[in-house]
Please model this.
Amino acid sequence: MIEASERPALRRRLPAWTLALLLVPAAVSLLLHGEASRRREEIRKAKEHHALLVLNRPVAATRALRSRYYQARFFLGYPAAVSYAAADLMRRLDRVLRPGQVLGLQLDPGMHECPFHFTVGIDAGPGDAAGRRFAVLFRRLQDLPNLSDLSFKEEAAPAGGRRRVFAIDGRVELP
Model:
C-alpha cells in the first residue's frame, strides 16, 4: 500500500468562470472609483470658480455700469428730448388748429412727460358756432398720439372782442 506521503499531490484547478466572476466586479469597482475621482475633481474646480465669481462680483459691477450708462444717457439727452417734444407738440397743434388761433402756449418740462397749457381763440359766430368748432377741435386733439390728460375750460373773453377763449391743459410724453 502506498502511504499518504508517497501519493502524488493533486492540484485543484479553479474553473475559468470563477476567475471571470472575480475579475468583472473588480474591473467595475475600478471604473467606478475612477469616475468618482473625476467627479470630485470637477466639483472642486466648480467650487473654486464660484468662489472667484463671488469675490469679483461681476453682476454688481455690471449693474453699476449699466446704471451709470442710463443715467448719463438720460441727463445728456434730456434737453434734446424736451426740445423735440415741444417742437413736435407745436407742429401737431399747427396741423390741428388754424393759424392765429393759438393765443399762448406754456410747456413745463418734467422727468418723463411735459405738462402743457395753451389758450385757443375761436371767432364767435351765430348761436353756439364757436362751441361746436371747439368741440371738433378738442376731439381732434384727443386723437393725437402721446397726448394725455387733456382737459379744457372756457376763459373770459377779451373786452369788446368777438372771440371765445378756451384754455386746454394736458401732458405730452417725452420720446
